[in-house]
Design goal:
The complex is a heterodimer of chains A (239) and B (86).
Chain A: E1 2-7, H1 14-24, E2 28-33, E3 44-47, H2 68-77, E4 82-85, H3 87-94, E5 101-103, E6 111-119, E7 135-142, E8 146-148, H4 151-159, E9 163-168, E10 187-191, E11 197-200, H5 218-231
Parallel strand pairs in A: 1-2, 1-3, 3-4, 4-11
Antiparallel strand pairs in A: 5-8, 6-7, 6-9, 9-10, 10-11
Chain B: E1 2-9, H1 16-27, E2 39-45, H2 51-66, E3 72-79
Antiparallel strand pairs in B: 1-2, 1-3
The chains are: A alpha/beta (239), B alpha+beta (86).
């Protein structure tokens, strides 16, 4: 099982992702520089967190034009699982692989804290091994995580059950107080119509070992491994 | 040729920065200031031959890169470059 971790100038969670995949989860991980035009022989693509190209214009706005993104899009169109974490999620939004956009956090404050995420759907490759309603403790670290989409898009996401994670309180309920950034309906992560591309603001790769405060993020990586094993596509080398 | 591009959040989109600035102005005693909307302003120096080309190029860059159509809209003003008539 080989994961590609795409590295943009300004990515700063690329090594967190590689560490989690390789050392915490025991799979192979390969860095792919954003100027590359091929992902190589990999099974999963991770767009990591950070501040690609400095995020000076808008988060993810420039990374979207990186040469590797054509290969990421083609990989996703062939059904390959793609996970966008934080800035990676923002890039997926900017390039239109997921709908919506990020606004500045409601309180214009950078939030770096542990949050609770409720798993809404287990029919994505990144949540397959979780259970519906399961609450994960996973950290966030972002200033622009206030998920916005027009009402018709929110209605589409709800109708097609494409909200994968929501911010919740200790009782597992979506509340204003438990929403760290003002995202509509507490949305923390969504999937595409084909359900193989998932973006989320929280950092599961930073929650894969008890020593860092939580191992709840492991289920995201375990899920995609189980999902690919089930499909029998491991080693097929979706290029 | 110079193009000025004004990028603003669509009216339906909440503007956290504008909201915070309005609160700051109120706390400074400017009670007659209502809502504040913050946006971005770009000046593009364009090496093109005609206003039509300038308009076309600025529009392409604004819609493709400078603004995110999901949350933002933009408006373009053309002006002669520095040194020319304004």
């Amino acid at each position: 099982m080989t994961f590609a971790v795409v590295v943009f100038p300004g990515s700063n969670c690329d090594h967190d992702a590689e560490y989690a995949i390789r050392h915490a989860m025991g799979h192979d991980a390969r860095f792919v520089w954003h100027k590359e035009t091929s992902l190589g022989d990999v099974d999963v693509v991770v767009l990591p967190g950070g501040f690609s190209h400095g995020d000076y214009l808008r988060t993810g706005a420039i990374a979207r034009f990186s040469p590797i993104m054509a290969a990421v899009r083609a990989f996703a169109e062939r059904g390959g699982p793609v996970l966008g974490i934080c800035n990676g999620f923002q890039i997926l939004l900017e390039c239109g692989m997921l709908p919506g956009a990020m606004l500045r956090n409601r309180d214009v404050t950078f939030h770096c804290e542990m949050v609770r995420l409720r798993v809404e759907r287990v029919d994505t490759p990144f949540t397959r091994s979780a259970t519906v309603g399961q609450v994960l403790r996973i950290p966030i670290a972002h200033g622009d995580g206030n998920y916005f989409a027009p009402p018709e898009t929110i209605a589409e996401l709800d109708a097609a059950s494409r909200v994968v994670f929501r911010y919740v309180d200790a009782a597992g309920e979506v509340t204003e107080a438990a929403n760290p950034n003002g995202s509509i309906n507490g949305i923390a992560g969504i999937t595409n119509a084909a359900r193989n591309v998932v973006g989320l603001m929280p950092h599961p790769e930073r929650a894969c070992q008890d020593v860092v405060g939580s191992a709840d993020g492991r289920v995201v990586f375990e899920s995609v491994v189980a999902s690919l094993a089930e499909r029998g596509t491991v080693g097929v080398g979706a290029r | 040729m110079k193009a000025r591009v004004f990028v603003t959040l669509k009216p339906s989109v909440f503007d956290p920065q504008g909201h915070t600035i309005a609160e700051a102005l109120h706390s400074l005693g400017y009670g007659s200031i209502g809502e504040v909307r913050q946006g971005k302003y770009f000046e593009l120096e364009l090496d093109v031959a005609s206003p039509a080309e300038a308009e076309s190029l600025a529009t392409e860059v604004a819609s493709r890169v400078l603004a995110n159509p999901v949350i933002e809209s933009f408006r373009i003003e053309l002006a002669a470059a520095a040194g020319g008539a304004s």
